[in-house]
Amino acid sequence: MGGGFSVSLSCDQVVNQVFRCLCLKGSYVHNLPQNLASLEKAMGTLTAKRDDVQGRVDREEFTGHRRRLAQVQVWLTSILTMENQYNELLNTSDVELQRLCLCRLCSKNVKKSYLYGKRVTGMLEEVKSLISQGVFIEVTDATSIAEGEELPIQPTIVGQETMLEMVWNRLMKDEVGIVGLYGMGGVGKTTLLTQINNRFSERGGGFDAVIWVVVSQNATVHKIQGSIGEKLGLGGKEWEEKSEMKRGQDIHNVLRKKKFVLLLDDIWEKVNLSTIGVPYPSKVNGSKVVFTTRSRDVCGRMGVDDPIEVCCLDTDKAWDLFKKKVGEHTLGRHPDIPELARKVAGKCRGLPLALNVIGETMASKRSVQEWHRAIQVLTSYAAEFSGVEDKILPILKYSYDSLDGEMTKSCFLYCSLYPEDGLIDKEELIEYWIGEGFIDEKEGREMAMNKGYEILWTLVRACLLLEDDEDESEVTMHDVVREMAMWIASDLGKNKEKCIVQAGTGIREIPKVKNWKDVRRISLMENDIQIISESPDCPQLTTLLLQRNNKFVEISDGFFQSMPKLLVLDLSWNDLSGFQMDVSNLWTEYLESLEGISGLSSLRTLKLRDSKVRLDMSLMKELQLLQHIEYVSVSIWSSTLVGEKLFDDPRMGRCIKKVWIDEKEPVKVIVLPALDGLCCQKLRKLPLNSKSVFDVEEFVIQCRYNKEWLERVEWEDEATRLRFLPSCTTR
């Protein structure tokens, strides 16, 4: 009646099921000692098998071009996990065995003994399973090392064909292992290295591996190893977690029997090949390393004493590159555009980065007016030109950021006060740096000058200043680097009136400035300014450069009254009548009178070369009244007696550092203890004897470009000649 079901189990079935269950659970307890012993034995077997497999893996990976199989790695990782669990279980085994009673048939805490025994039994089964799984015919497989992957680049690199061949030919020499390419930012070093990479990809050259690594600033050993390891087939989570030393060993084990090429792009400091794990290239192993950098110092630290400088393009090649970027269609829109385009290209001064960016910008400019406007902007303030501030200057700024210390950075920015494409006299520049206080004079002027030259050569080696091929006493600054310096000096364009620089632009009056109170430095050198009639309030001004304004005739009386912080003032090569002011540095060439100069109570540096100032008795007395004077350079025209008396004054004798002697009249000069420079190209006999000049090592007899004079000049005696001949220079 109704729905239902019934289950019928015999009494024997129930009893048997319960008995089996009780026996199983009971076995976890009373078989615990035996199971622990079996587990210990099985773990010994497993670890021995693990060691055998691991040894095979290590040996095969050591030979290179082999990488462990994924299933092998999973098996090895499982054993590591199992070992940890086994050790944890073993830590409590003594306690669990002590719980057993009644001849180990029962336990004082049945529940705990049961659970522990169950874990032991389960682990024993897992260990046996891992033992059975650990039979591998192969433990590694072959990995491929890229012989060279072609990188995307234009098929032809305008202007770099010759450079590419030169680098390639040097690299292929058996005795050359490392080649360094250095040059300023944006000059095309990475492009050149890419071409080298692609040539290896095309030609092979018998190299087993070609490895490209972008290093860049702030690169770590770990990052460089990771890039190399990826190309060598190394990797994975386990490899990433290895120490730098272990990763270096792995890289070395792969490369040590290979002929490889390592291309390191954009390095900013020494890359220690040994630490990375890269075998040092030699004639024996035939391997090569090529790197690019902006610093010649880095080349030296990498062991390359003859690096290849990647220079800007010459005028014709620069025009070819610019023309290619602009396009023939745009250039043909108007007959005047090609000539204007050449002027725009000229503003780039052969720098490929600027030629590319500005060329691409001008490709769409099809009116003459737009090209005229481009020239105006690039001439007045290039940072405002499209693409310059976001695509060119930040790239160049990396070189500035890498300079060591604020002193060096300040000295670099100061160089931008010189005219575009102008020559910079090294000694004059260092005098400015000292005057500004960038370089401390507390240890003496000689130490300060030496520090200045150290900074200057640091800037040259960083490719921020360029050596002049014709005159070793001068350097130059690439125009685009100069734009970068002015951009930084103006707080990245946010405060354009912080530095007023219109040097060599042909202006006839001082520029209009909205807020003179913010101006720190002014450079109006090499212009056509005639009269300065206003008196601006410049409480922050420290440098004012007005030299070589050949038509300069007048400065208002109050012009210097509101410049309380003025440190450097250069009025050289101007035809002024002289004036009185209180500044710490004064350059006064071509002044006809220095009457009242003794009123310059703070004057420390006085340069009178070619000043047309006659050393009469009145002026001599005024010079002797200057209490703080430390540095004097002077030209002697005649007035021999006055010169002798001036030099005979002990205090003035210590201050006079450089003397230029006019060749028209005979002049007698007595011993000057602090003299470090003497110039007189037609002097027949040097006014020196074997005891003249205390610090002869620092003394210079300058006979620039006149070796004949040095050969015919007379000496007091042989001892004098031997003492001073090393001091002569024809530079």
TrEMBL record:
One Pfam family this sequence matches: NB-ARC
GO MF, one example: ATP binding
SUPFAM superfamilies to which the protein is assigned, alphabetical: L domain-like, P-loop containing nucleoside triphosphate hydrolases
Residue stretches making up the NB-ARC domain: 160-331
Recorded superkingdom: Eukaryota
Alphabetically ordered keywords of this record: ATP-binding, Leucine-rich repeat, Nucleotide-binding, Plant defense, Repeat
Any one biological process term the GO annotation gives: defense response
Transmembrane intervals: none
Disease resistance protein winged helix domain residues: 417-485
Entries under InterPro entries matching the protein: Apaf_helical, Leu-rich_rpt, LRR_dom_sf, NB-ARC, P-loop_NTPase, Plant_NBS-LRR, WH-like_DNA-bd_sf, WHD_DRP
Protein family according to the UniProt entry: Belongs to the disease resistance NB-LRR family.
Record's protein name: BnaC08g41330D protein
Species name: Brassica napus
